[in-house]
Design goal:
By secondary structure, the protein is mostly helical. The termini are far apart. It is a multi-pass membrane protein.
Length: 303
């Protein structure tokens, strides 16, 4: 006679061995820890502090001029108006300066990515006499303040006849040692097997760089492009030095040049600031994921 064994209650197996074949593994919720909550609160507080000046500038630019100095100060205008924007746009060449900034920042970004990536490929993927010395000199160039180079660069632009031209604004900004260093760190982490296989198939250095290295480097190329565009757009000192013709000025230089005409019209000053910052805010909102991904894949994350 056989005796059926009583069923034994077993605890649920969290390893997933008893799951139905083909079923997706259960998603585990990460418990909230005090450290995570504290980090969230600190991050939220910093975000609020960062956004407060932007919100104040935006709300002030939408106020009538009389409300900007009214006591007590109010965050929101009692009467919403675009008079400050109409005054700034109608009383200056904002459209031309915006085009100049977009053109110079775009061309500078393309040249920086091209030149820096080629230099980084030479440093990271090839061997030649003096490579380490040249790389060390390039890294040392990061420590040179750009203000030190203003006088010789301006003398060079005068000798070349590039004052008050787009190229006078663009060319001195093409040399970017920091971007070369970032790309060198990224290129050094790429697998060498792909390059060796391409060599065996008879590919040239240029073909390897253009068809293998660059497609694999999209995250760092995107990050470098965004960093370069933002820094070029915000650059005030060099365009201010090399341009005296209003038709050649970039947006930051042009707005500062006419800001004296605003006097104490705070609404118009804030409207000019919002106009100058708006393209960068749009770029950051659209490409913030690429920036984070690019930083994570370079040597900047500490890895």
């Amino acid at each position: 006679m056989t005796v059926d064994a009583a069923p034994v209650d077993r605890p649920a197996d969290d390893s997933g061995l008893d799951r139905t074949p083909g079923a997706a593994p259960p998603r585990r919720r990460r418990p909230f820890r005090p450290g995570m909550i504290a980090l969230f609160l600190v991050t939220a507080a910093l975000a609020v502090l960062w956004l407060m000046p932007l919100a104040w500038a935006l709300f002030t630019s939408l106020k009538p001029e009389g409300e900007t100095t009214a006591i007590p100060l109010r965050w929101l205008p009692t009467e919403w108006t675009l008079a400050a924007y109409r005054a700034v746009i109608g009383g200056s060449d904002v459209g031309l300066w915006m085009f100049n900034s977009i053109f110079t920042a775009t061309v500078t970004t393309v040249l920086v990515v091209l030149v820096s990536s080629m230099a980084a490929y030479g440093f990271a993927r090839t061997t030649f006499p003096g490579r380490r010395l040249l790389l060390a000199l390039t890294v040392m160039g990061i420590m040179v303040p750009p203000q030190v180079l203003i006088v010789p660069l301006f003398a060079e632009m005068v000798a070349l006849g590039l004052v008050d031209t787009y190229w006078g604004v663009i060319l001195p900004q093409v040399v970017a040692p920091a971007m070369v260093f970032i790309m060198v760190k990224f290129f050094q982490g790429l697998p060498h097997e792909l390059e060796e296989a391409a060599h065996m198939d008879g590919a040239s250095r240029w073909r390897i760089y253009w068809q293998i290295i660059l497609p694999l480097s999209r995250p760092v190329l995107a990050a470098v492009s965004i960093f370069t565009f933002i820094s070029t757009w915000n650059n005030f000192l060099w365009p201010f030095i090399v341009t005296t013709d209003p038709n050649a000025m970039t947006l930051p230089v042009g707005l500062i040049a006419v800001e004296g005409g605003f006097g104490l019209r705070y609404a118009e000053i804030m409207a000019a600031s919002v106009i100058a910052a708006l393209p960068l805010l749009i770029i950051f909102v659209l490409f913030q994921r690429q920036v984070v991904r690019g930083v994570a894949h370079t040597g900047l994350s500490g890895q």
